[in-house]
Specification:
321 residues; alpha/beta; 9-stranded mixed beta sheet
Length: 321
């Protein structure tokens, strides 16, 4: 979620269906209800990290219980999701971390996808170490000092180099280029999925072991495992334009929504609602924590969020206006 360009969310069995071992490309198994003319149906693309699942859970709950729609969800990897959206296999994508090539192709050139507005959440990818390690070695939070500590991060997977842990290979990441271009003595190792990455992070933290990981916010795990960001060379517009030459930090990205262009025009109340759907990082994290940590189903978490606070009600009521 990267570039997110993209991120990368539990080890709990309740999330297994949602996260899997890196989201499979389900494009060809899209709902038969997607883009159905005249039917009160909506098909939403659900990404494999729990923040995106939280968006979809709450949108689905309100569409079904307040607007009377039948909602289907399809799990699709980030780039294939754009193809599915363009083809009308899904109607909406509620959390995109920035895919300029797809935006140029489908929004600007083909005009098969329409902008759906900002989600209200700003995403940021970065490299993190556990805060207990940063307190012990304060200078470790500057990338220039990482080689000094690479021996602390060695694992069987990284060999003689330090391990930089990433999540799913399906996520967009600059990490291999960063390691190479910054001349760091590290090896990027993929956990396989967000769920697997979370499991490893929590195990390292339980044992108070050092770890360096690609991670992102918003993310509920920060509440359970405090982490401190490692400062990479400052991000400047265009510094990540060439994937092979990236040597800068990830940007802070206002997350965007996109709709199938036909659905945006003819989707009625559902399209209008999804364009209005906008909440805060705190809102998203609240639902994510219920799903990932409290083991609620997405529907249970959505219902609790919708019903629990007057402030929440005032937020989602605006989406219906």
């Amino acid at each position: 979620m990267r570039v997110r360009k993209t991120a990368v969310i539990a080890a709990a069995s309740s999330l297994a269906l949602l996260t899997g071992c890196g989201a499979a490309d389900m494009t060809k198994q899209a709902s038969p209800f997607a883009n159905a003319q005249g039917a009160k149906t909506v098909t939403l693309s659900v990404q494999s990290w729990v923040g995106a699942q939280s968006n979809v859970a709450v949108a689905q709950y309100i569409l079904e219980h307040e607007l009377g729609y039948r909602v289907d969800t399809v799990q699709v990897d980030e780039v294939p999701a754009w193809d599915a959206l363009s083809q009308g296999r899904v109607d909406a994508l509620l959390e995109d971390w920035g895919h300029p090539e797809q935006e140029q192709r489908y929004v600007k050139d083909k005009k098969t996808i329409a902008r759906g507005g900002e989600l209200g959440v700003t995403g940021h990818i970065g490299w993190y170490v556990p805060t207990y390690l940063a307190k012990k070695h304060p200078d470790i939070t500057n990338w220039k000092n990482l080689n000094k500590y690479s021996h602390l991060f060695r694992t069987p997977e990284s060999g003689s180099k330090g391990q930089l842990m990433d999540g799913s290979p399906s996520y967009v990441t600059n990490d291999k280029a960063l390691v190479k271009n910054l001349k760091l003595d590290y090896q990027v190792v993929f956990a396989g999925s967000e769920a697997a990455q979370i499991t490893q992070i929590r195990q390292f933290a339980k044992e108070k072991k050092p770890f360096l990981t690609y991670w992102y916010s918003p993310q509920w795990l920060f509440k359970k495992v405090p982490m401190t960001e490692v400062k990479l060379p400052p991000y400047k517009e265009g510094c990540d334009a060439d994937p092979e030459k990236v040597a800068c930090a990830y940007p802070h990205t206002p997350l965007q929504k996109y709709l199938n262009a036909d659905f945006a025009k003819k989707g009625g109340e559902a399209a209008a609602f999804l364009k209005q759907f906008k909440w805060t990082t705190e809102d998203q994290n609240e639902v994510s924590l219920m799903i990932a940590e409290q083991k609620m189903t997405p529907e249970e978490a959505a219902k609790k969020w919708v019903d629990s606070h007057k402030s929440n009600k005032s937020t989602w009521k605006k989406w219906l206006s």
